[in-house]
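To whoever is on call:

I kicked off a structure prediction for a single chain this morning and the downstream step that reads the tokens threw a length-mismatch warning. I double-checked the sequence; it's 195 residues and nothing unusual in it as far as I can see. Pasting both halves so you can look.
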Amino acid sequence: MVPPTATTRTLSTAEERREAVIEAGMKVMAERGIHGTPTLEVAKAAGISQAYLFRLYPTKADLAIAVVRRCNERIHATFTAAAAQAKAAGATGEDVLHAMGESYGELIQDRTLLLLQLHCHAAAPSEPAIQAAMQDGFRNLYALIKAEAGADDEEISQFFATGMLINTLAAMGAYELDEPWAQKLCLMPKSDDPA
């Protein structure tokens, strides 16, 4: 093993700091929005100076793109793991797609990921780079779902539509409501049902 040099240690530290900044950026941007997030707040949350943040990410847009990509990567990794686990258990086709959907329901219980997605969708029309990163994320998920579940275009469209409905319902707290409209939209059993 080669002993670390000042150069390799600096690179390692920069990589570690980038990770810390992305994680902090995800949390702060989820709460404040992409446009409403001051870079100083992200730097403080990451435990670095604002000047160092700008050495790692020269612009706020660069940081936002890194955050969007990380969000996309988490969803992709979750679906990949769910598909692999379902296939290992002998599932095919629709059952693999169902497993991916179930994994998403668990994933968005992470409030940060849920809110961040909503902010990304809201920022996309006015920020071409964020829009492109969101498109890349959907493109990659489309390809993954098609490859892993063998889903056709209609099934994939329904899968995405259901995911967007889940995001909206979760954001408005509909899953906690004991009201007929919420139960129907959330696909929940009625409170008097034994299920």
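Update from on-call: the warning came from a stale cache, not from the record. Cleared it. Sanity check on the structure: The CA atoms of residues 71 and 113 lie 7 Å apart.
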